[in-house]
Amino acid sequence: MKHSTSEKSCQLCGLEKLMFEPPPIYCTPCAARIKRNSVYYTATPPDRQYCFCIPCYNDACGDTIVVYGTSIPKAGMKEKENNEETEESWVQCDKCEAWQHQICALFDCRKNNGGQAEYTCPKCYAAQVGRGERVPSPQGAVLGAKYLPKTILSDHIEQRLFRKLKLERQLRARLQRKDYDEVPGAESLIVRLISSLDKKMEIKPRLHEILQEENYPSEFPYKSKVLFLFQKIEGVEVCHFGMNLQEFGSECQQPNQRRVYISYLDSVKYFRPDVKAVTGESLRTFVYHEILANWIFRILQISRVHKLLHMGMSTIERYLSMLRKAAMQNIVVAVTNLYDHFFVCSGECKAKVTAARLPYFDGDYWPFAAEDMIYQLQQEEDEKEWHKKGTIEKTITERAIKASGQSDLSVNAAKDLLLMHKLGEMIRPMKEDFIMVHLQHACTHCCNVMVSGNSWVCKQCRNFQLCDNCYKAEQQREDGERHPMNQKEKHLLHAVEITDVPGDTKDKDEILEFEFFRSTEHILLFCQENHYQFDTFRRAKYSSMMILCYLHNLTPRALTLTCYICHRSIRASQCWRCETCPDYDVCNTCYQKDGRIDHPHNFYNTFNDNKKALQLGVMQLRKMLDLLVNASQCYMDCEYPNCGKLKALFRHGKRCDIRAPGGCFPCQKMWYLISLHARECKKSDCSVPRCRDVKEYGRWQRQILDSQRKVVVMDMMRQRTAQVA
Length: 725
Description:
Layout: E1 39-43, E2 50-53, H1 54-59, E3 64-67, E4 70-73, E5 78-81, E6 90-92, E7 99-101, H2 102-105, H3 122-130, H4 152-175, E8 189-202, H5 205-210, E9 219-233, E10 236-248, E11 259-267, H6 283-298, E12 304-308, H7 313-328, E13 334-337, H8 338-342, H9 365-382, H10 385-389, H11 392-395, H12 398-404, H13 411-427, E14 434-438, E15 454-458, E16 465-466, H14 468-475, E17 493-497, H15 520-530, H16 537-553, H17 555-558, E18 560-562, E19 569-571, E20 575-578, E21 585-587, H18 588-591, E22 603-605, H19 610-633, H20 643-655, H21 665-680, H22 691-724
Helix pairs in contact: 4-6, 6-7, 9-13, 19-20, 19-21, 21-22
Function: Acetyltransferase enzyme. Acetylates histones, giving a specific tag for transcriptional activation.
Domain TAZ-type: 612-694
Organism: Abeliophyllum distichum
């Protein structure tokens, strides 16, 4: 406040104009990031936006630019300069008429309909409470992180984290010769799983073509999860830590069976208290490591964890220290890297060096690089370069062919081996960045994880063990080729039955779907479009508050119910439901009326039971999606009582002038249902209106995101290679 010397300054922070960090802009064709203050061209056909850097614009012959099969005329493009800045918005107190930044005031601008929302600044609010003119809001009036649905995973991580924090605080107090309450401890921590979805990942076409002889699958099913850590600071819950997970269960085919991938992990620096833990690291780092270790402990039923983290070396070292700690606690079996495990056949390993063994994850580095390398090989072949240098097989060294264990290679097998050679050369200088963690022991010969049958262990050699199949093959070999190789005296192998690995890895947590939190890309886009940034503490508080607001208020569009009495829309989290009748839902207003409700059965409310409200909402959403298909095919009086409502939504959508982007609630609800349906629809001739358009837009958006992600990942790898060099 001592800096607040001007009426133009914010009455809370004392500063005047504050600018947001500008969001990145990417060229649509080449996906390169357009530099600040650089000129670029933009085109905005219906529902889409294209940006073109100067090289792509100049390289395009003719009057159009073709992007993903769509021709964009140059005449309709606008020239822009990437120097736009966005100022933080302001809000004026209705009592004292002072101006404040909306971020400083924690003002939810979504409720400011047409600028008519009433706002009282913190100073006036406190003065009113002091004079008895206003009663402070009760605890829980604002739905925070603890009111988000709990899951088995979040409860497990929270409980183990709290036990470890209590033990750490006791040890710290003992070392400092103080009482437990005299040393600061981490408080008000909340772990929540905010997204848990079943997804399928399609294999890129060029790689799938060269691996077809290996019976390589065309897609991999997996569970996508997003986990957040919140901490209440100064009365506001701040998001400190988040990670995006891909879990591949026992039902998935090899090479992804029983694997887990951490596709994104990030944290901010505002954790309280800012003290060192008894282990010597900061308490913040201690908490983040414990979350990771507890998550790994939870998914021990899945045989392996892969953590491919493209980060700076200091960050890699921090997480390696966490993994070493997990190894000391017997949570993990071994820590290695992608290169040493899949690209090098050392010792008595007899596994084939092939891309068919590499775990294939959504957004990972090597699938992008592999597609480019295969394309380059194909280009060289098409241009007859191979005839000058010899066949593809001859370009592979004899040493590489010997390592592959094959003497007669097909064209695809030769491409596969050459691809592994090129990938290995690219990954080897920075192999330590590709962390890979084993949660179960792997067979020394075939390198597959042993999850059933027997493990044949050598008591004389450390870490030598075979699966049942490799043990049978070992018994049929000549003495010179049996373990240990190149030694006259052979070792006996003893059978150890594997009993601690469950056969089924099905996730018991329920499906959690929030519109803007389906993946890392959706979260980043959502934050960029709304300027939810974490570069300062005040912005971190505001951004976290708005994220929680969206998480608690995304239900009106998707999970709305209808009051049986007044027929108004109500949220699944704010209704009274009959314990007997499946669709008898009543709003709180009708339920509280005199005389209550003339209904013979008992009711229960969902006000304080978010899990039950979520189950109710998801069940209602499934009904709405089934009803959507029915309404698109029904042309007469229907037995479904709500079919007419869906048809009315279709008619409304045709004549509405406001539309969903303008804030029309019926249009938003209709588009949300159609987009959810299109995400799962596989029919090419679907009867649901605009389903085909939504699917086409989704494919276009995925292509854009994949291209941008590819460029970002490749840039990071180039920078990392330069650092290592």
